[in-house]
Structure formats: structure tokens, C-alpha cells
Amino acid sequence: KQATITIQSHVRRWQVEKMMALQYRAATIIQAAVRCRIEMKRYSIIKHSVCVLQCYWRATMLCRKEREVYIRKKQAAIIIQANVRRWQVQRMIAQQHKAA
User: Fold this and answer.
1) Distance (Å, rounded) from C-alpha 45 to C-alpha 24?
2) pTM over 0.85
3) How far apart are CA 48 and CA 59, in angstroms?
4) Whole-angstrom Cα distance, residue 23 to residue 36?
5) What value does the mean pLDDT take over residues 44-64?
6) Once rounded to an integer, what is the mean pLDDT over residues 12-29?
7) How far from 18 is each of 9, 11, 15, 78, 94, CA to CA, in Å?
8) CA gap 80, 56 in Å, rounded
9) What is the spatial distance between Cα 33 and Cα 26, in angstroms, rounded to a whole number?
């Protein structure tokens, strides 16, 4: 009778250990899935933030480039205007010399 109790005790202990190992593995898998989901969400938020920052930075750089182009064109127009006005004055002075 004592041998039967001892065998049953060992079998039950083995069954409990097996169930505990199974539950431990299941908990580990669930924790891994939850942690994976949390990290994926965190990564998604960071990725979105990076995309927003890149968008603003690219817009800023484009704005700077467009401003430089505008300034160069404006300076070129000022130079052309100055040359045209100089030419007009020279022509007017030449006509005044001819008339005198």
C-alpha cells in the first residue's frame, strides 16, 4: 500500500511539474507576444514621428533653396534695370549733345 501511495505521489508530482512547465511556456509565449505588440506600436509611433520630421525638414530645405533662387533672380533683375536706366541716360545725354 505504501508503494502504491509513493508511486501515485511521484506520478502526481510529475503531472503537476508537466502542467507547470506547460503553463510557464504558455505564459512566456503570451509575454513575448505582448512585448512584441508593444514594441511594434512604439516603433510605429517613432517611424511616424521621423516621417513628420523629415517632411518638415525637406520643406524647410526646399524653402531655403527657392528663396535663394528668388534672391538671385531679383538681383539679376536689378542689374538689368540698372543697365537699362544707364543706357537710357546715356542715350538722353547723347541726344542733348546732338541738339546743342
Assistant:
1) 31
2) no
3) 17
4) 20
5) 97
6) 96
7) 14, 10, 5, 89, 112
8) 36
9) 11
